[in-house]
Amino acid sequence: MNVVRSLTPALWIALSAVALGPLYARAQSCQTSSDLDDATRGVVTAAGQRLFAMATKGDVASVRQNAIPSLASDFSGIEATIKDHEQDLAGAQATLKGVFVLDGTTPSPHAEFYCGVFGKSGQTANSAVFYLDNLPAGKYAVVLLDASSAKGRTMFSLILQQEGTDWKLGGLYVKAAQVAGHDSDWFLARAREYKTKGQMHNAWLFYTQARLLTSPLPFMGTLATDKIADEAQSIQPADLPVGKTIDLQAGTASYKLISMFPQIVGNDLDLIVKYQAADVSNTNQAYQSNVAVIKAVATKYPEVRDAFAAIVARAVDPTGRDYGTLLAMKDIK
Q: Which of 150, 220, 237, 259 is least buried, going by the fewest C-beta atoms within 10 A?
C-alpha cells in the first residue's frame, strides 16, 4: 500500500475530509513558515526533525513518549507505520518542504485553513489549503519533510499539537513519492493519453493517482493539486463510485461499490474495488462474491484491462472489516 495513515482517533476523524474539500466551510487562521516568528518556526521545525530522526532509527518508544496522550495510549498504528517504512527511512536525509501552523482554537464542523498568498484566480505556487472536519479545539502544526534514501524519495508528514510550550505528535503520514517507479508527472501523462483515447474511466483513475502523488496529505490542496482536480473534473465518469455508491450487477446478484482506485500490490499497479458486504466471516462465500465482483468490473469497465495488472476486490462489512481477493487480468475470463 502506497499510503500509510496513523492518527489518534479524534484527529483521524477530523482529517478525513473529502479529497477536494467541503463546498461550505469556515476559514480559519493559518501561518506559513515565512509568517512565523523565528522562535515558533524553530521550535516546530526542531520537533518535526527530532521525530523524523527517531523514526529513521526505528525508535518507536521515543516517538511514543513525544506523542499527545490520546495517541500514546493507542500507538499501534504509528508503530506499524514506522515498521512498514523501516527500509524506506533507514539512513534517510530530511529536507524541509514546509511548515504551517493552524489555529483551531475556535471549533468548526468544517474548517478551511488558507495558508500563504492567494491570487485572483485562487492558489499560487506557495499557497496551500487544509480541509478539516470536526477538528478538536487546539493549535496544530503541519511539518512536511522529504526523506531521501537509497530506496528513493518518501514524503514524511507530521501533524503536531501544541501542549503548553511543547509540540507533540498527533499524527503521521508516510507516503512514497513514486508508485512502481513512476511519479505524479508520469501518471498525469498517462491520464491524458487515456483521455485522448476516450478511455475516461482509466483517465479518471490515473488523474486520481497523479493527484495523490502530488500532495503529501489527502486533506491538503495546492496549486498543483487544484490544476489536476480541475482537469479531471471535466471527464469524471458518472458510473464510478466517487462520493457515492454504485450498483454493480453480477449475474443475479447486485453489489454496491464503495470505491475504486489504483494501488501497488507487489510490483504491479492493480485496481482496487471495495464493495459493501453484510458479513465477511464466511471466507469461502466472501471469496466467491469477490470473484463475481472482479469479473463484473472487468465486464462493465473493459478498458481497465489495458491499464492494470490485476483487479483486487475487497468485501467490506459494516464494522469496516474486509476480505480481499486478487485476480490477474489474464485470469479474468
A: 150
- Tell me how far apart the alpha carbons of residues 128 and 31 are, in angstroms, rounded to a whole number: 10
| β strands within the chain, DSSP E | 3-7, 26-32, 93-104, 110-115, 128-133, 138-149, 152-163, 166-176, 220-221, 246-250, 253-265, 268-276, 310-316, 322-328
The predicted-structure confidence for 219-246, as pLDDT tens digits, reads as follows: 999 999 999 999 999 999 999 999 899 9
Residues sharing a CB contact under 8 Å with residue 11, sequence separation 6 or more, in sequence order: 71, 135, 136, 159, 161, 170, 171
Residue pair 208/262 in contact (Cβ under 8 Å)? The answer is yes
Structure pTM? 0.79
Q: Model confidence at 15, in pLDDT bands (50, 70, 90)?
A: very low
What is the grid cell recorded at 62? Answer: 521515543
Report whether pLDDT(2) > 80.
Answer: no
CB atoms within 10 A of CB 23: 7
Q: Which domains does the chain have, with CATH numbers?
A: 3-176 (no CATH), 184-233 (no CATH), 246-331 (3.30.300)
Q: Is the CA virtual torsion 16, 178, 196, 305 positive or negative?
A: negative
